[in-house]
Write a structure and sequence with these properties.
Helices cover 28% and strands 26% of the residues. With 295 residues, it is an alpha/beta fold. Helix 2 links the parallel strand 4 and strand 5. Helix 1 packs across helix 8. The structure holds ribose-5-phosphate.
Length: 295
Amino acid sequence: MKNPVLFSGTSNAPLAQAVAGKLHISLGSVEITRFLDGECRVFIQESVEGKHVFVLQSLSFVADQHLVELCLLGAALKDLKASQVTAVIPWMGYSKQDKAFRRGEAVSAQLVAQFIETAGFDRVVTIELHSQNVVPFFHIPVTEVSTEHLLARALNRKDFIVISPDRGGKSRSENFAKNVRLPIVYLDKSRDLTTGAVSVTGISGSVVDRDVVIYDDIINTGATAIKTSEFLRARGAKKIFFLATHAVFAGDAVSQLTRSSIDRVIVTDTIAIPKQKMFDALQIVSVAPLIANAL
Ligand code: R5P
């Protein structure tokens, strides 16, 4: 690839910097500011004509702002005649809203895909999509990078039972269990669509005196982590690990996780985690090598 350039949005500058380091390039020069009324303005400060350009931006909190910023960057780079512009979206915000769960809701993930395409991006690189339903919403190539091996290496243990926390994540957990060659036990989890309250009602096998690894894609409110770990502890599990790619950590997720009996929470840096959201049991592994490789 001729002269690749990587630009960073404001959502996850440390990750963009780490990816640039892995690629032995420096980040593209851009000024991203806000007008007094809060509207975003981007100003690309170098020539990108004929170049293959990447923009790294997670659609994390505040997702709406980060999405607009990403789209403005894409449009500006296209205007400057970059030959190809790829959106590198480590955390695909809005992917949870991949269908209208109730009549009257929008299929938000689809509209977000349309925004990204309309901005002029030619390709998307993302990590562990919450739902495969998101891929066909795009009409440009989407490359999804898996964190399975990265998380397995970080856990660095070979003597546990893999726990699938819910039906939605069944195939994800099954792939993980298959790759680490360990048994899997399934939980029955349900979530109230209005309140978001999570309850765990069943388990497919015994976890008595066993160490368990709950394998999920996201920690959002933390409700799944808390409820599943309490359930497993009550059924005799010994050490409890929680592995998830995306540390959304919404609301009071961090204080709940801090108080929980989970022994270790392993996540990645697809979403930048500020210092005040760190806690003792938290381990963060970087996806920078995976992204660098995918680019
Ligand atoms: C469920 O569909 C997902 O795989 C996660 O379990 C869920 O999004 C986690 O959300 P929360 O932390 O709010 O329970």
